[in-house]
Amino acid sequence: MSKSIVANRYALALFKTAQENGQIDIIQQELLEIKQVFQTNQELEELLQNPRLSIAKKKELLAELFNGANQFVQNLLFILLEKNRMEEILNFVDEFVMIANDAAGVADAKVYSTRALTVKETAAISSTFAAKIGKQSLRIENIIDPSLIGGIRLQIGNRIYDSSLSGKLNRLQRDLIGS
């Protein structure tokens, strides 16, 4: 997770605004899309940091790229641009998602399995592990990993729960070798 104080402050301010206007989910979804744009287009960040391009031109570019975005999101992008903080956009989105998840009692989780999980299995994993970490539910991303042989590996933040067959075999091997 991000350790940027600046990103946290901007994220908290936008979260409070979104909360007051009942738009947390909409803004979170738009921010995740913006994050994806910045991750896939490194040239965009370089262009926005180019000193030869005026702030007005950069704002026009952002307004054109994200013209369907929520006004609060657009305003925040303009503020980041004006304050020369566009390099914080990815950290900012991560911070916003973390704040929104905490407020909703939700945690993001990655579940590695040998096959796609059913809706019933996903719900069971969510309810079981959400209680263990003090959350109401988990937002699960299922990742197929045939190297697990069987079982699942669950990652919530920096916690890993490994009940996969390959994990058990590795632990057994370490115990037998004695290291």
CATH architecture assignment of the largest domain: Orthogonal Bundle
Strand element count:
4
For the biggest sheet, the summary is: 4 strands, mixed
Briefly note the structural class of the backbone: alpha+beta
List the uncertain runs. none
Note down, in words, how this protein is organized:
It is a peripheral membrane protein. This protein has helices spanning 5-20, 24-40, 42-48, 55-65, 71-82, 89-104, 119-133, 165-177; strands at 106-113, 137-144, 152-156, 159-162. It is of the alpha+beta class and 179 residues long. It folds into 2 domains: 5-101, Peroxidase, domain 1; 105-177, no CATH class. The chain has a 4-stranded mixed sheet with strand order 2-1-3-4. Helix 1 crosses helix 6. The relative contact order is 0.13.
Which structural traits does this protein have?
179 residues, 2 domains, 60% helix, 8 helices, four-stranded mixed β-sheet, Peroxidase, domain 1
Summarize the model shown.
The protein is α+β, with helices and mostly antiparallel strands and 179 residues long. The protein folds into 2 domains: 5-101, N-terminal domain of the delta subunit of the F1F0-ATP synthase (Peroxidase, domain 1), CATH 1.10.520; 105-177, no CATH class. The protein has helices at residues 5-20, 24-40, 42-48, 55-65, 71-82, 89-104, 119-133, 165-177; strands at 106-113, 137-144, 152-156, 159-162.
SSE layout and pairings?
Layout: H1 5-20, H2 24-40, H3 42-48, H4 55-65, H5 71-82, H6 89-104, E1 106-113, H7 119-133, E2 137-144, E3 152-156, E4 159-162, H8 165-177
Parallel strand pairs: 1-2
Antiparallel strand pairs: 1-3, 3-4
